[in-house]
Write a structure and sequence with these properties.
By secondary structure, the protein is mainly β. The chain contains no helices and ten strands. A ten-stranded antiparallel beta barrel has the order 1-2-3-4-5-6-7-8-9-10.
């Protein structure tokens, strides 16, 4: 599992148990999480079947970093073991915060977030299941 916050490998959104801001499927590859730096790639498919790719490479407690493919600029921290916190701005919506908590066994991740919009607070909840490491030395 390594010494990072989120286990490296492939994570898949449990759509039935999740409440996203915009419905769709997500496959998340945690390429690297060594406790200092987090690198990930996400493939998302919306309700219309359109696919988008988002990538992130940022340091915990470092400078804000861009989530490429979304326009988000976020700050990343880890307030406690197995927990990542993301703060930033969602373009055309407002400031947001998200807390990602990895289960004790490292096989499930729960994501709770909220964004402050002009129409009030909107929230989301996502559950991801870890499928395993990626072969080829990336994990």
């Amino acid at each position: 599992m390594g010494r990072g916050i989120i286990p490296e490998g492939i994570w898949v959104l449990d759509e039935a148990r999740s409440r996203k801001l915009t419905p769709g499927s997500v496959t998340l590859w945690i390429v690297r999480d060594d406790g200092d730096r987090l690198i990930w790639v996400a493939a998302e498919k919306n309700g219309a079947g359109e696919i988008s790719i988002k990538t992130f490479d940022g340091a915990y407690d470092g400078e804000p970093a861009i989530v490429h493919g979304s326009g988000f600029v976020v700050s990343l921290s880890s307030p406690s073991p197995r927990t990542a916190r993301v703060d930033g701005e969602i373009p055309d919506m407002g400031p947001f915060s998200e807390t990602d908590e990895v289960s004790e066994g490292g096989r499930q991740m729960r994501v709770n977030g909220e964004v402050q919009t002009a129409d009030g607070v909107k929230t989301w909840y996502e559950e991801f299941n870890w499928l395993g490491p990626v072969d080829g030395g990336a994990s």
